[in-house]
Design goal:
Layout (H helix, E strand, L loop, with lengths): L2 E8 L4 H11 L6 E7 L5 H13 L3 E5 L3 H13 L4 E3 L2 H11 L15 H14 L15 E5 L5 H10 L4 E5 L17 E6 L2 H14 L11 H18 L3 E3 L5 H18 L11
Parallel strand pairs: 1-2, 1-3, 3-4, 5-6, 5-7, 7-8
Helix pairs in contact: 5-6, 6-9, 7-8
């Protein structure tokens, strides 16, 4: 299999560029692509050092540089090496300029500025970490979202992902022998979402978890009948309270979070808000 090089140059953290490259590469199976990540490229000297590496490992160049001199220099050097270079955000930026009738500000890393949205996201992350696995249920009313589900239905990773999108999230394990606090059933502000999964998949995930902890995989935790009863108990609770339910069996964390956000926005619109709530990204 041929090996290819992909160079990612950014004048900021490069997080956006990495996500774009990752999403694009996911569309190609059996590809051997080596990604070279070059963040915070803000000087000609830095660019020159990087071009030395690019010439040693020639390949496709993606970049997000807003400084015109830096862009021109990069394109000139890539052209001299006969390497294709693409400004991956230019099409989107041009379309927004046409729509909004103004030019882009052209400031590196502007989406990462320390504004109110940034601090709101930090607050959401702190809240979510402090309300994991049923902790601090007394102030769940302050949450945007509460995730409920039996053990190993991806509650915590989904909560953290949503927190990084700016949502305050609490999560609660549903345990047959230990019913959740009554406060869960009286929440008014937060959206409560039930997470469920297929019994076979849940048993597999739990078994792998036990093995990773060097514990015996032969316990009630992975017993087929017990797992089925747990899921049945949780589904009945979700139905009795009218909570929306998401089956995470074949969903990634990102897909589950996207489904939660869709439900959250639909709920806000149904409540009379003209536009869905926006959160920092």
């Amino acid at each position: 299999m041929a090996r290819y090089h992909l160079h990612l140059l950014s004048d900021s953290t490069g997080e956006t560029l990495e996500m774009i490259a990752k999403a694009a590469l996911a569309q190609f199976d059996d590809s051997d692509v080596i990604r070279h990540f070059w963040p915070m490229v803000r000087s000609q000297q830095h660019l020159e050092r990087i071009m030395g590496e690019i010439s040693s490992h020639p390949g496709l160049v993606f970049y997000t540089l807003v400084n015109n001199e830096m862009r021109a220099k990069l394109e000139e050097r890539c052209m001299s090496l006969s390497l294709p270079a693409f400004a991956v955000l230019d099409g989107v930026t041009d379309a927004l300029e046409d729509l909004l009738g103004q030019e882009a500000a052209g400031r590196p890393g502007r989406q990462h500025r320390l504004d109110d949205a940034y601090f709101a996201r930090v607050d959401a992350i702190q809240y979510t970490i402090g309300h994991d696995d049923g902790i601090s249920w007394e102030d769940w009313e302050d949450a945007d979202i509460v995730l409920a589900g039996v053990s190993r239905t991806s509650k915590t990773p989904t909560s953290i992902y949503l927190a990084n999108r700016g949502y305050k999230v609490a999560n609660i394990p549903i345990v047959v022998e230990s019913p959740p606090p009554a406060a869960l059933f009286g929440l008014r502000r937060p959206l409560v979402v039930g997470l469920t999964t297929a019994p076979e998949r849940l048993i597999q995930v739990r078994r792998n978890r036990l093995l990773s902890l060097s514990q015996s995989p032969d316990t009630d935790y992975v017993n087929g009948d017990r797992v089925a009863n747990e899921l049945k108990y949780a589904r009945r609770m979700f139905a009795d309270n009218g909570w929306p339910v998401i089956d995470v069996t074949r969903r990634s964390i990102e897909e589950t979070a996207a489904a939660v956000i869709n439900i959250y926005n639909e709920r806000r619109l149904a409540a009379g808000e003209t536009t869905p709530g926006s959160k920092p990204i």
